Amino acid sequence: MFVDRSFCTAHCHDNGMCWRYPNGSHSCICYEPSPANKNCGLSPEPKSETLGFIVGLVAALVLLAIFIFFFWLDHKKASPAASGIEAPEEPRAPREETTPSGAEASAPPEE
């Protein structure tokens, strides 16, 4: 509800209009903002811009959390340790047959 000019002059100290809320608070709408007027607002409902910023920030954080979750899930699926499959061992060089040394080398092979 717009209030008369005397209320604006007393509370807003500027040439403008006031918006008075049912709870008794008010907002000033100034035609010519001045540094001396600390109560001067540019719109009757300045909270709507803040609310939009908060909603946008929350939406961005939710999207970021979803992206991180799916990236983690994809990384977990690609990891062999996470799926219970052991990584293959490195191939070993074939064993060379060793010849016995000492007395065993001089003995003839048994048939």
Automatic annotation (TrEMBL):
Disulfide bonds join 8-18. Keywords: Disulfide bond, EGF-like domain, Membrane, Transmembrane, Transmembrane helix. This is EGF-like domain-containing protein. Residues 82-111 are annotated as: Disordered. Residues 4-41 form the EGF-like domain. Residues 89-98 have a biased composition (Basic and acidic residues). The chain crosses the membrane at residues 51-73. InterPro entries: EGF. It comes from the Eukaryota.
